[in-house]
Task: structure prediction
Amino acid sequence: MYAISLGDAELGPLEPWHAEEFLANIDRGREFVGRFIGLADRVTDLASSRAFLQSYADKTAADTGRLYGIRVDGKLVGGVLFRTMDVTQGTAEAGCWLEPSAAGRGLVTRAVEVIIDWAVTERGIHRIEWQVASGNTASIAVARRLGMQRDGVLREAGLHRGEWYDLEVWSVLAPDWRARQSGAE
Result:
């Protein structure tokens, strides 16, 4: 996938050579991003930034994941990804991060819509999951806007910064996604 317009933003691949730009993005949103996901704790310097991006370049090459940056006026403000992708089983888990300056503009919803559509139409993915800490109301709202269904809550399924949290699992199935995209819901 090459750069795709999201209206007032652009979605495009995020690769190892973007490590400095990616680190700057994480630095600008470290506390905001780190409230619910470990990315802010994992990417702390140029070496860890490059390693994270390389891990997704490797996943892309193996067809087991993808990583895309969201840019506004050429500046990286966040991204979306397939944390996991199993084409044989037809499953994938989508996720996101966003710095505070870009929040509340619908960028994540539009970007995830693009990658879900790609996964369903181009890669034949049948089930897309969205796993989110129960307290992350903004991310839950994205799942709802995308027409996902809440499958359940895994109680105290994750440990983040020393605290256990409940993990909600949301999903959309390919037939439901196609119906939604065609307006036949």
Summary: Helices lie at 19-34, 39-42, 46-62, 107-123, 137-145, 174-182. The radius of gyration is 16 Å. Residues 7 and 105 are 11 Å apart (CA to CA). The mean pLDDT is 95.
